[in-house]
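URGENT: need a sanity check before tomorrow's submission.

F., can you look over the SAP domain-containing protein record below? I want to be sure the sequence and structure line up before it goes out.
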Amino acid sequence: MNKRDRSNSELSTGNHLNIHYKTYQKDKIQLNNFIVKELKIIAKYNKLKLSGKKNEIITRIREHFCKNSHCETIQKNYRRHLVIRNLKLRGPALFDRTICINDKDFVSLESVSSIVWKNFFSYMDSNNNVYGFDIESFIQYIKSSNQQKSILNPYNREPIKSSTVYRCIRLYKSNHIICDKDIIDLNITVTNPYSHLELNNAYYNPLIYSDLRMNSQFRELYLKITYKRKDNLNCRIQNIFIEFDRLGNYTNSSWLSGLTIHNYPRLLRTLYDVWMHRANLSTNTRRKICCLFDPFQNVLQENMLHILHNNTSESFLQNYAKIICITIFENLTYTGINEEHCKLGAMYCLIALTRVSQSARITLPWLYEAIL
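Structure tokens as predicted:
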């Protein structure tokens, strides 16, 4: 089309001048055929400088389109590199699942052959045996094992090389880019007062029962309980007492937050005694109240007393004691297999509170007398 033939209306709208670098290459547009006013519209659409003579504007637009084309080529090649690396990180069994020694994932029990490629991870051990996993299961296993000297193969208990563990973590993070998946933060940053406490490892990654058959419901519950441990301390205390009330009790959060520093170890000892002895709970019942893990794991009374006796900072002692107690309350109240067992867990928490809080004892005298 000759520039003299263009109508004034077409020029005023400028719709035909919304030229992108892809359009420029595809349609082999000749910029010399445009008048200066049209070139300025093209430059403005591409967020370029508008000043200068016709030849200067044309050169500016052409350089911009050329750079965009080169950038796209670089991005395509880099993405290709990421995809190839992602596939290599998945191990030797990605395209032939039959070489895996195990036929099911050790957590989800899903058949190895049916795990979708973006969730699949495999590795070969020193004996040339190949094992396949759902990567989310393997990552959770790594997180729950981070207190151990080495990660053990869940099938034969042989140590897994650190290079294999790092490869899995790299793959997991790579999935976030290649497969556009939500990713679990493996490097948790803790806010005050938590960052001052010795809780950054096992505390945020409680070890599940070794014979627990993880499914989507348990995985969702596990993430829920671990995420709660990163909430503000006062919010956690308020929320747990709101949950107590929802489960049919009449409570007040000051029963816990208002305790003296020396009453927290006593509360912990009482609750542990009720859980393990006084309530006469069978192992099966305890597993129904806390279906994921031992509610007292990594919270030994001796460790707590040692820390309380060897630190002089009042705020440190107060925060540490509250966090340990609220954590056990959450474990007992949120991880039941159903609401009835959540009510049982909440009741044992309140029974222990009546032993150390006079206000709780006055409000709930029947719980104080329930287990003597």
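My own read: Residues 90-178 form one domain. Residues 8 and 14 are 10 Å apart (CA to CA). If you see anything odd, call me.
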